[in-house]
What we know:
Layout: E1 4-17, E2 20-33, E3 37-41, H1 48-56, E4 64-66, E5 69-72, E6 75-76, H2 82-91, E7 93-96, H3 100-103, H4 110-122, H5 126-139, H6 145-149, H7 158-170, E8 176-180, H8 188-205, E9 208-213, H9 216-222, E10 225-230, E11 233-239, H10 240-245, H11 250-257, E12 307-310, E13 313-315, H12 331-343
Amino acid sequence: MNEKVVTVKNLQVTLDVAGQPLYATRGIDFDLYQGETLAIVGESGSGKSIAMHALMGLLPAKSQVSADYLQIFDRDILSLSKKELQQVRGRRIGLISQDALSALNPTMRVGKQILEAAIAHQHINKSDAKKKVYEQLSAVGIAEPKIAYRKYPHEFSGGQLQRIVIAMALISRPDILIADEPTTALDVTTQANILKLLRQQQKELNLSVIFITHNLAVAANLADRVAVMYAGKIIEIGKTREIFYNPQHPYTWGLLEAVPENKVGNDQLFTLPGNPPDLRFPPKGDAFAARNPYALAIDFNQEPTFFKVSSTHFAKTWLLDNRSPAYEPPVEIKERWQQFEQMTEGRKFYD
């Protein structure tokens, strides 16, 4: 097995919202391995971006963060000084944000912005750093890098800006890359090109990637494993094939049914009923119970633990308890299960 580069156990983040605590993440556990891409999927407000900001030490000052483990290469993030955190962010972790334009200084040439990152984290002279910037701009598909170096952010298209932000994130040769919804604001063609670029860079640099998205179809094209988040918790995690073809949590079912690419002709697009809970007042029991047509009585009173589906696949749903009554999943999910059994030569993927 590859080296473990990130360990997160029982991560809890509480934000201050107008003096009211908001429990943004409520006990998250996950690991990331060298060379792996882990997609974290969920609706807006599920806590996926907050968790990554906690990992990078980028939360607002009034935030409260606790964890049994919050480690990058065995370094405890919560015990690091501000200077040490800056070093980790520069050399160990790179960040690609959702809004490329806001990630760049509009009054500074893009080349100079990337140059400053190279000098700060690689400790090389300006001449060598400039060469590296040209090389990195070329590597991410920016034509005529010497000309692009002197341009300002407003002179680029959205897709080009995202490539520049990727170049900035990779200029210091980090071990880990966090991509926070990097394709959300892009058209479909540009989105596909950016995903192709990320796959290429991940492979060439042997990066460990955490890819944050609300789109399961995007996750399917990029990730080795997928973690599904809801209301501040990871509720299902497994290999990409397991999550897509053997999903066990009703929330994951809903996300899959809502993927537009799965619809045929005039089929109506599925939408999950209701809204996520207000995390200033977390509900008792399973946070998804009020929206879950498969909810059991126990869901409203007791939160499920992770049930083991396979050695790599776990889900927090009482439906997996051996005391659960029989149920009939949605037709699309049954079809996925059948495909999964065919993939595994008729064997159920259970230990």
